Amino acid sequence: MAREIERKFLVKGDSWKTLAHQQTHFAQGYLNDIKQSGAKSSVRVRIEGDVANINIKSLEIGLSRDEYEYPIDLKDAQNMLKTLAVGPVIEKVRYLVSYEQHLWEIDEFLGDNSGLIVAEVEMSSEDEAVILPQWIGQEVTNIPRFYNVSLSQKPYKDWTPHEKSI
């Protein structure tokens, strides 16, 4: 079993873009409805550039969650996103930025989630110290609406001004 340990933050400004050493277009869709009674996980298909995988994550909100990920055929993934996705497919550009001892994944959302930029940093333990770059804003690790699975059900464009201001 794999355990993902990460923190999520909003991003301030765009100074981080000059530090990015890689960027990749992502398209992902969910194959199950997490609002269904008894749902314990999300099942997602994701295309990262020209690579595809299927991912299963526990529905816990917070620093760590169970996560399983397996490669799948790109054409199968494209077909699944077209025919099996529940709700809209999320699109974003993921930028990779190295800062101090950590690799930051910065997601600039597109389409119905345009305007939202979230940075994630994976850690080896929940109490690992992370030095925050100046472009990091408020932490949103424990706020469910900032998770991709939630964005697939209620996109950023439908948030109230209060929700957008945290």
TrEMBL record:
Domain CYTH stretches: 2-153
Superkingdom, natural source: Bacteria
PROSITE patterns according to UniProt: CYTH (PS51707)
InterPro entries for the chain: CYTH-like_dom_sf (IPR033469), CYTH_domain (IPR023577), NeuTTM/CthTTM-like (IPR012042)
Protein name from the UniProt record: CYTH domain-containing protein
Species the sequence originates in: Thiosulfativibrio zosterae
Active site (UniProt): 30
UniProt-listed CDD domains: CYTH-like_CthTTM-like_1
Pfam families reported for this sequence: CYTH
